[in-house]
Structure formats: C-alpha cells, structure tokens
Amino acid sequence: MTNLIKKLKYTKANIEELKNEFRNRGDQDADDFIESRAEPILLVPEASDEERTKNRNINWKFHDTCFHCGRGAKGAVMFHMVNGGGFMASKKDSLLFSLFGLGDMYLYCIGSTCAKKFTKEVLKPRGLDPKDYFWGEAYVADYEDDPDYLHIGDTAGYEGDYE
Ligand SMILES: [Zn+2]
What we know:
Bound molecules: zinc ion
Radius of gyration: 17 Å
Structural class: alpha+beta
Number of helices: 8
C-alpha cells in the first residue's frame, strides 16, 4: 500500500488553518464555505410517509429503515447525513462538518440495495468511489484505520467554530 493511497485529506494538522480560513471567509456562509472545500455533497431523496407506511409490515423485523426507500434494513450500510438532512457527505470531509456544520446529522441507514443503486446511478457516473460515501463492511476505505483519520464528530479536542 503506497502513501499516496493512504494520504488523508484532513487531519488534526489542518484544524488551525481551516479555522483561520473560516474566520476570514468574507461573505461566504458556513454551507458555502464547507461546499467550497468538500468533495461533492450529494442529494439523497427521502422516503415519503406513504412509502414508510406501505412498508411497515415488513419493517418490523428489522431494527433500521432505509432513509431512501423506507424499507426495513439491517443497518449494514450507513451514510453521513449533512445539511440538516437529505444530503450525503464524503468520509474524507468529516472534519469540515464537525468543525463548521450545524446541520451535521451523523450516520443514517441506507439499505444495501439502495446503496448499490446509488453507486451505479449517482457515484460511478461522476467518477466517485462508493467507499468514500458509504460506511459498513462492504465499503471500508484504505484510510479509515489510519490513526490520524478523524471520524464524524471527532475534532481532535478542538471546539466547533460555527460563527
Ligand atoms: Zn432503500
């Protein structure tokens, strides 16, 4: 495994620099600031109430529900929900949301079938790697076990800086 593959986008070493940039961002709001430094933030349409109700009979045996289609799911695949809901962020950018994202909603469940569909229809056509967007056994990225990798909510002891 080369260093190139293991290279992290953000580590503890970037925090001061990012916080300074955030303070000097001019008239950019926090969402624009994050977006300008993040991998693509992708829309994940949410299941309607009707879809959830329709699927209730098969949902009870699962402990989780797919955000996208409302069907029961095992919770084997999760995604980082941001912007107050309905959007998915890359694992590489967890620190940006921990430091500056008031609408960080942490991990939500997506069914493995919907994850595959999303990979085929949204990620692959844009040249994006599903291992950067989904969490779970089938989607482990090389950098996740790097001790310097900051997971969702981990700011290495620094406070968030929303304003
Ligand atoms: Zn689904």
